[in-house]
């Protein structure tokens, strides 16, 4: 499963290091403490991608839907679905206040109850980072779609030479 | 490996052989492994003959890819030519009948006798265009079958168990006169060849099962605008006269088939030659079915009645009929036996043709069945071109049958649909897979069946095997 995390790490320049650190399950000190969110997102990405491939190659498997551009339509769908999955997942975490303040703000303070909160005006993690993560998720999904296509297409009757 | 030697006499003989070739191309069941056609006609420039010859030559080429050791039935029955010749050419080349009988060298008395027996027009008849409806001169001129290399080759080739069938019309010249003459020669013992030697295997020929079809009038011709002697007013009288003579053929043939049609089409009047190109007719198709009936092993006990010394005990007489008298007939008008024989092969072969003409070019680069097999120059290979040439003639054959007064229209030839081209309320056993419609269904089946074909087959053989398998799955008529 570390492989999935590594793949997402290659694209962290797109969505930012803070979000990456949070998603891989580290605390503010860089120590792994909790859920590796990449497992959840990566697994969802793989499942969605595989479902779309199975739909294209086995469920639809149509002689009039076996051109390379039909395969491209499903590639785009894979990208779009995973864009929203990546965005939705991180957005819900960000706006649900689940992400520790050290990842969302450049300045943090400690409250009386000992909890840490971010100083207003020092936000470093925005909704745009969620969209950017969605893009990264889409890119990874598209890459998997391409790779899996070359394996799964042989199971198809009518689309085995789609895209090539 | 039984053979059926078919003698097609005259223009009708050639046209029935053409219909038979169409049926065999479509894969209609034939009880003989090999058909050996021999056309006998004086009129070698007759367009009907040249069309049949072209079709058979193409068929023979395509037959080379039909043996796939799989399920294929398209072009499966072998057609073989004796000495590579379809025509039994009479050695005599005289143009005028009076030259043939040597009237000029006869004594005055004999010349006067000839003038009594034959009219001036008949004596001066140009026989290069056939006998133009004159069986009286046909019977004189054709009496030279045995003096021929093809006839010798026929005797050499003949094996025990082989059968003979004669196709002729009764209302013209060549067929009406040639049929009884040929039957007589085939059953005459110890016939000698041109070299004076006994023809080999002639005993086997004498004793062979023999059937014939005599085609009664089914068309008439318009009035002549040249010196032609063909006159359709005489067709019925000639038929009646010939039929009364054919009574003497009883017990000399195992089976004698008759066919006619009262609803006649009027053809343009041509005495013969290049202009004689009659449209195909359902009667010719039905006559071709007589050939298949005769060689059908299941019908042998009904058709052939021989005693212990292999002599014919009685002749079986058969006629072809349709369920209901109708000017436009399709499969629904045919008897169950005929439907069973024809619907699947003809429909499958037409579907194959329609796919090739309407879909193949567009789809071959996308469909897995064709991928790197049937793309590029595949369609330009000689044998595939011949296959498509036969298919084009097959399509034209149906178009022509639609033009007759008695139209045979089992298919909507203008249809661009993969399945709705078959007319009538027939149970074609279509699959219930809702995903695929029309031509996509055909492509889907081709893409499935390609995996069932032998990968070791050369691509042309795999191609024909594939299309047979796919069309067999898609069209499966059950009574």
Q: How would you describe the overall organization of this protein?
A:
The complex is a heterodimer of chains A (164) and B (479). Chain A is mainly α and 164 residues long. Chain A has one domain. Chain A is 62% helix and 4% strand. Chain A contains seven helices and two strands. Chain A has helices at 2-10, 12-15, 17-23, 37-60, 68-95, 101-104, 127-152; strands at 108-110, 116-118. In chain A, strands 1-2 form a two-stranded antiparallel ribbon. Chain A is elongated, with a radius of gyration of 19 Å. The mean pLDDT of chain A is 94. Chain B has 479 residues and is α/β, with parallel strands linked by helices. Chain B has two domains: 3-321, Tubulin/FtsZ, GTPase domain (Rossmann fold, 3-Layer(aba) Sandwich); 331-474, no CATH class. Chain B is 40% helix and 11% strand. Chain B is built from 17 helices and 13 strands. Chain B has helices spanning 10-26, 47-63, 97-100, 108-117, 120-123, 135-141, 149-157, 174-186, 202-207, 235-246, 282-295, 300-303, 336-358, 360-363, 382-402, 438-449, 459-474, and strands at residues 3-9, 34-40, 78-79, 163-169, 209-215, 219-221, 255-259, 265-267, 305-306, 312-314, 316-319, 328-329, 407-408. In chain B, the strands form four sheets. A seven-stranded parallel beta sheet of chain B has the order 3-2-1-4-5-7-11. A two-stranded parallel sheet of chain B has the order 6-8. In chain B, a hairpin with a 5-residue loop joins strand 9 (305-306) and strand 10. In chain B, helix 16 (438-449) packs across helix 17. The model of chain B has no long low-confidence stretch (mean pLDDT 87). The interface between A and B is medium-sized, with 12 and 12 residues.
């Amino acid at each position: 499963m570390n492989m999935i995390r590594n793949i997402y790490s290659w694209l962290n320049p797109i969505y930012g290091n803070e979000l990456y650190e949070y998603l891989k399950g580290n605390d503010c000190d860089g120590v792994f403490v909790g859920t590796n969110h990449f497992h959840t997102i990566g697994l969802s990405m793989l499942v969605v991608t595989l479902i779309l491939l199975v739909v294209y190659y086995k469920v639809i498997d149509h002689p009039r839907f076996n051109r390379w551009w039909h395969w491209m339509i499903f590639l785009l769908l894979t990208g779009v679905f995973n864009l929203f999955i990546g965005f939705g997942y991180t957005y819900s975490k960000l706006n649900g206040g689940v992400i520790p303040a050290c990842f969302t703000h450049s300045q943090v303070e400690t409250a009386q109850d000992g909890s840490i909160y971010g100083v207003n005006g020092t936000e470093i993690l925005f909704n745009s980072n969620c969209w950017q993560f969605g893009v990264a998720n889409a890119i990874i999904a598209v890459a998997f779609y391409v790779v899996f296509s070359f394996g799964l297409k042989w199971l198809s009757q009518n689309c085995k030479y789609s895209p090539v | 490996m039984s053979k059926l030697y078919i003698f097609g006499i005259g223009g009708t003989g050639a046209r029935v052989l053409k219909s038979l070739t169409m049926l065999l191309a479509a894969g209609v069941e034939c009880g003989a492994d090999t058909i050996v056609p021999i056309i006998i006609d004086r009129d070698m420039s007759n367009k009907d003959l040249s069309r049949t010859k072209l079709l058979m030559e193409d068929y023979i080429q395509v037959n080379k890819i039909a043996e796939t050791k799989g399920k294929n039935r398209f072009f499966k029955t072998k057609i073989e030519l004796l000495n590579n010749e379809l025509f039994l050419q009479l050695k005599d080349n005289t143009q005028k009948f009076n030259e043939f009988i040597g009237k000029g060298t006869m004594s005055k008395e004999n010349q006067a006798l000839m003038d009594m027996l034959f009219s001036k027009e008949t004596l001066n008849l140009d026989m290069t265009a056939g006998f133009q409806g004159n069986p009286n001169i046909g019977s004189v001129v054709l009496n030279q079958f045995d003096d021929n290399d093809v006839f010798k080759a026929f005797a050499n080739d003949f094996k025990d168990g082989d059968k003979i069938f004669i196709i002729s019309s009764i209302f013209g010249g060549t067929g009406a006169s040639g049929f009884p003459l040929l039957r007589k020669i085939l059953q005459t013992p110890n016939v000698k060849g041109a070299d004076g030697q006994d023809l080999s295997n002639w005993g086997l020929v004498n004793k062979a099962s023999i059937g014939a079809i005599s085609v009664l009038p089914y068309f008439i011709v318009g009035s002549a605008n040249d010196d032609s002697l063909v006159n359709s007013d005489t067709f019925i009288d000639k038929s009646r006269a010939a039929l009364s003579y054919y009574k003497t053929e009883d017990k000399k043939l195992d089976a004698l088939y008759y066919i006619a049609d009262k609803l006649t089409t009027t053809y343009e009047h041509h005495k013969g030659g290049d202009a004689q190109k009659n449209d195909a007719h359902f009667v010719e198709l039905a006559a071709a079915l007589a050939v298949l009936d005769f060689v059908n092993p299941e019908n042998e006990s009904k058709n052939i009645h021989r005693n212990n010394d292999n002599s014919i005990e009685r002749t079986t007489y058969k006629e072809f009929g349709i369920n209901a008298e109708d000017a436009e007939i399709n499969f629904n008008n045919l008897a169950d036996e005929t439907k069973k024989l024809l619907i699947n092969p003809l429909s499958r072969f037409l579907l194959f043709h329609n796919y090739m003409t309407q879909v193949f070019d567009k789809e071959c680069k996308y469909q897995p069945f064709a991928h790197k097999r049937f793309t590029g120059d595949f369609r330009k290979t000689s044998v595939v071109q011949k296959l498509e040439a036969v298919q084009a003639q097959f399509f034209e054959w149906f178009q022509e049958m639609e033009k007759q007064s008695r139209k045979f229209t089992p298919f909507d030839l203008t249809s661009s649909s993969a399945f709705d081209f078959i007319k009538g309320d027939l149970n074609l056993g279509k699959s219930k897979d809702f995903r695929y419609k029309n031509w996509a269904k055909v492509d889907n089946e081709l893409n499935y069946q390609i995996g069932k074909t032998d990968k070791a087959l050369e691509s042309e053989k795999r191609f024909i095997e594939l299309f047979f398998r796919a069309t067999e799955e898609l069209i499966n008529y059950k009574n």
